[in-house]
Design a protein that fits this description.
By secondary structure, the protein is of the alpha/beta class. It contains six helices and nine strands. It has one domain (3-204): Vaccinia Virus protein VP39 (Rossmann fold), CATH 3.40.50.150. The chain is globular. Bound molecules: S-adenosylmethionine (SAM).
């Protein structure tokens, strides 16, 4: 794609997600700076700057830029935070968060996706991201506590481990889609005087969080 055409598409996407609710300048700047085409399948690169989720390996998806923007914004990051992401997928959301926080641990259950994301993030020069393989429904204890936790797969409820690994400081936040397999609500939990305040950002649709504190693994053949 010619540089002019790419710039035009980025501008148009930024304006679209801005109008749809992504107002945080730092988030918009981070989205503009991360080359989304580096995280999508080669045959879909032409659609990299469209506001839609796209398929990646293992039957998973790279999230829609608007949702990446809204979820990143909901964490209220100012640059000094330690963040946990569950569901690395392509590594795209991780790259955006790496620009907004001090450090990021991202957990993926598929070894193959984790390896590809790790290589891509290294290639682009991100040094503050650690990609690990595991069941992120249990969080990632070695890196706790976290100032922000973002779950990019749909859970039936807030996993207890995530609540336990969230910092005790006021303002620490978890952003997570919660609901049924077909549709969920994007929920923000904010630590406030030893309680968790809850905000609903509206309906979303994510692939399932499969694990001990998420949904059960589908049986073979399903
Ligand atoms: N953040 C990703 C991106 O920017 O490309 C999109 C993530 S995709 C919608 C959800 C990811 O969560 C999938 O890669 C899936 O394998 C992963 N996942 C599902 N359950 C998980 C679990 N228990 N632990 C870690 N990753 C999980």
């Amino acid at each position: 794609m010619m540089a002019d055409e790419r710039t035009k598409r980025i501008k148009s996407l930024l304006s679209e997600i801005n109008q749809s609710g992504v107002r945080d300048r730092r988030v918009l700047t981070a989205i503009a700076a991360v080359p989304r085409e580096s995280f999508v399948r080669p045959d879909l690169r032409d659609q990299a700057w469209e506001n839609r989720a796209l398929p990646i390996e293992e039957g998973q998806t790279i999230s829609q830029p608007l949702i990446v923007g809204l979820m990143s914004q909901a964490l209220h990051l100012s640059g000094g935070e330690r963040v946990l992401e569950i569901g690395t997928g392509s590594g795209y959301q991780a790259a955006v968060l790496a620009r907004l926080a001090e450090s990021l641990v991202t957990v993926e259950r598929y070894e193959r996706l984790a390896a590809a994301a790790r290589a891509q993030l290294e290639d682009l020069g991100y040094t503050n991201v650690e990609v690990v393989v595991g069941d992120g429904s249990k969080g990632w204890e070695p890196g706790a506590p976290y100032d922000g936790i973002i779950v990019t797969a749909a859970a039936p409820h807030l996993p207890r481990s995530l609540e336990q690994q969230l910092s005790r400081k006021n303002g620490a936040r978890i952003v997570i889609p919660i609901g049924q397999a077909e549709e969920q609500d994007l929920i923000v939990y904010e630590r406030w005087n030893d309680e968790l305040r809850e905000f609903n950002l509206g309906p979303v649709r994510f692939v399932p969080l499969v694990g001990e504190e998420g949904w059960q693994e589908p049986a073979d053949g399903q």
